[in-house]
Amino acid sequence: MLTQIRAEKPIIHCLTNHVVSNFQANGLLSLGASPIMGEAPEEAADLAALAGAVSLNIGTLNETTVTSMLIAGKAANKKGVPVILDPVGAGATPYRLSTVKRILEEVEVSVLRCNAGELAAIMGADWQSKGVDAGAGEADITQLARSSAKKLSVIVAVTGKTDVVTDGDTVIENASGDPIMTSVTGMGCLLSAVVAAFSAVSPDRPLAAAAEALRFYGLAGEKAAQHVKGPGSFQTAFLDALSSVRQSDIDELNRMEDGAL
Amino acid sequence: MLTQIRAEKPIIHCLTNHVVSNFQANGLLSLGASPIMGEAPEEAADLAALAGAVSLNIGTLNETTVTSMLIAGKAANKKGVPVILDPVGAGATPYRLSTVKRILEEVEVSVLRCNAGELAAIMGADWQSKGVDAGAGEADITQLARSSAKKLSVIVAVTGKTDVVTDGDTVIENASGDPIMTSVTGMGCLLSAVVAAFSAVSPDRPLAAAAEALRFYGLAGEKAAQHVKGPGSFQTAFLDALSSVRQSDIDELNRMEDGAL
Amino acid sequence: MLTQIRAEKPIIHCLTNHVVSNFQANGLLSLGASPIMGEAPEEAADLAALAGAVSLNIGTLNETTVTSMLIAGKAANKKGVPVILDPVGAGATPYRLSTVKRILEEVEVSVLRCNAGELAAIMGADWQSKGVDAGAGEADITQLARSSAKKLSVIVAVTGKTDVVTDGDTVIENASGDPIMTSVTGMGCLLSAVVAAFSAVSPDRPLAAAAEALRFYGLAGEKAAQHVKGPGSFQTAFLDALSSVRQSDIDELNRMEDGAL
C-alpha cells in the first residue's frame, strides 16, 4: 500500500487540533500523501469530497470545528470516502466524551484509532487514565478492542506497547515501534492521519490498511530512534524516516509476523 | 535588501493559518525580521498599523479570521504599509475562491504570491489542480501572470520549478531552489511572509522586493538541501540557512541572471 | 524539583496561542511533564481541575479563548492549583493590555512571567517596546519588578539578559542562558509553561519554583547552543536538552549563585 500511496499521493482532509497540525501535515507529506487542512463549516463538505480519506481529531475541539467534523464526516460517507476518528483525551472531560459519541452516532467511522484509556472511556470500561495519556487499567485490551469493534461497527486500532487492530473477529497485533515515540506530542494524531492515507488507497480493506499503517509507523519509529539524542532530534529523524521506509521493509515485517495482511 | 532587513528588523504582521504559524514565525526570525501573529478583529487594525508589512494567508480561514484580514488589510492601506496575499488552495473550494476575490476587491494588495493552480483558479483559467498543490495545466504561466498582474493591479509572484514575478510588463524569472522544498508544509506560506519582509524595507519597489525575496529563498533552499536526509532534517537546515545566506550570495545570483533588480 | 517533575509527571493545562502550541507541548514532554492543551469554554474548568498547574498565554487571543482563560483560571483558584500568566505583547495593542488587566483582576495569578516591555506596559511605566519584543527603556527593571510584585500580589519573573524573579521583597537573579534563545519563536511562552511545571510540584514555594525553572531553562539553552548551526538546529537541540539537563546541573548552578532557592 505504501508504494501505492507514493504513486497516487491521495489527498487526506484533516480536521485536526492546532497543536499537531504542522506535524501532521509534514508527516503526511513525508509519507507521500497530500494533506489538506481546513475546518471552516463553509468548506468542510467540499474538502471532504476532494479527499481520498478524512481524518477527524478532537484534540483542541470547539463548537465550530465539531460542526465541521460532522459535516465533513457525512459528506465523506456519501461518497464512500473512509473516515478515521482520533478521540484525543476522550476520557478527560465530559465535553470530549459526548463529542466522540456524537460523531460515532452521526458519522460512519471506518477506523477508530486511539489508546486504551480513550477506548475504555468511550465504552464506559473501568480504566485509570490521566489527562491525554493512555493510563493503566485492568481491562483486557484485546477483549475490549474486539467488543468495541463489534458494538460500534468500526475497525478499532488501539496503540500501546503492543498495538491491537481488530474488526471484532480477526485480531492483528503489532509490536514495531520504540519507547521514545511517546515523548513527542502528536505521534498518535499523526498515526491516525497515516491510517487515513493507507485507507485511502485500500478503501475496501480497512482492517489491513490500519494494520499495515501501524507496522509502517512503528518501523519508521525504530529507524528514527537510532542515533538520536532526545525528543527534538527524534522528531526530525522521524519525519525523515517516514519518507525513507520502503514497502519491502513492511513486507519483511509482515512475513515475520502473521503475513495475513 | 537583506542587509536592511537584518539591520531594521521590520515587524511583519501575519494573519495566517495554524498549520504553518510556528514555521512562519521562526522563518521570519531566522531571516532577521520581527513577526507578530494575531488575528482577533479587536486588534487587527492596531497590529497592522505597527507593522512594516502585512501578510495575509487563507490556509485555515474562517469567518473571524477573514473579518480580521479585511480590517488589517484596510488599516495597512491607510498607512501605506504593503499587503502580501497568499491565496492558499484558492481553487479547492468556492469558499476560498470567493474569499480571495473579496480580499482583492476590498484591499489594495501589493504582491499576490501563489502557485500556478491558485492563480488559474482566481482568473478562471483552465487548469488541473488537486487540493492545495500547484497542479499542471495548459495555460502559459508567464502570460497568465502578466495578464493577472494587469487586471488585478498587483505584482504577481507565481512560484514553481521556475518562478515568475511580474508587474504586467517587466517579467523576472528565478530558478533558484531545490525539489525537496515541496516536501515541507508551509514552504509557500513562509515565502509569502518573506516577500512581506523584503517589501517592508522596499515599499516603493514591490517588483524588485518580490523578486529578491524569491532568489534569497531559493538560495536558502539550495544551501539547506546539501547533506540532508529527508524532509525533517531539511526543515531544520532551512531555518538555519535563512539566517546564514548573505546579501552577497543574492548579489552574485543577480549578476548571473539579469542583474535588473 | 526537576527530579520530582520527572517522577510525578504533573499535568499542565495550557491555554495558549497556536503559534507555539506544538513547541510548548513538546517542551513540556521533553522536560518530563504531561501537557494537556484545550481551550473550549465547555471544558476549560474540567481541564484545569485535572491539572497540577495552569498556563495562560494571550499570544493569539480571541473572544472565545479569553473566556476560557477566565474560566480555567477561576477553576484553578478554587482548587489551589497555581496559575501562570504570560502576557505576550501586552503593550502591542489595547485589546491585549485590557485582557491582561482583566485576567489579573479576576484570577489569582501565582507567577507573572514576562519581558520588561510587557511588564512596563502593564504597570504604565515608561518603556520603548516594539511589537512583541522586550524593547529598551529607562526604568530600572529590578525596581519595576519589585513594585509590580507588591502591587499585583504575584511573583514577577522578568526575563532578559539577566532574569529577575521577585515576590516584592526577595530578589533572585539568573544569568544562565544564551543569546540564540531569542531567535526561536515561543521560547518565552514555553518558559512560562516550564515555570508552571515547576510550580505544580512546589505549589507552596512559587518564588523558588519560578527561579529554579529559569535556571534550568537557561542551562538547557546553554547546553543546546553548543555546536548548533542556526535557529533551526538550536530548536531541535533545545528540546533534546530539556530532557537531558539533570537536577545536579541546577544544584551546581544554585551553589555558584546565592544557593537560596
From TrEMBL, chains A, B, C:
Entry's EC annotation: 2.7.1.50
UniProt keyword annotations, A-Z: ATP-binding, Kinase, Magnesium, Metal-binding, Nucleotide-binding, Thiamine biosynthesis, Transferase
Binding site for ATP: R113, T159
One of the Pfam families matching this protein, by short name: HK
GO MF annotation terms: ATP binding; hydroxyethylthiazole kinase activity; magnesium ion binding
GO biological process: thiamine biosynthetic process; thiamine diphosphate biosynthetic process
Cross-referenced Gene3D superfamilies: 3.40.1190.20
Domain of life, per lineage: Bacteria
Pathway listed: Cofactor biosynthesis; thiamine diphosphate biosynthesis; 4-methyl-5-(2-phosphoethyl)-thiazole from 5-(2-hydroxyethyl)-4-methylthiazole: step 1/1
Cofactor: Mg(2+)
UniProt-annotated binding residues for substrate: M37, G186
Swiss-Prot/TrEMBL catalytic activity: 5-(2-hydroxyethyl)-4-methylthiazole + ATP = 4-methyl-5-(2-phosphooxyethyl)-thiazole + ADP + H(+)
Family according to the record: Belongs to the Thz kinase family.
Job description of the protein: Catalyzes the phosphorylation of the hydroxyl group of 4-methyl-5-beta-hydroxyethylthiazole (THZ).
Protein name: Hydroxyethylthiazole kinase
Organism field: Planococcus lenghuensis
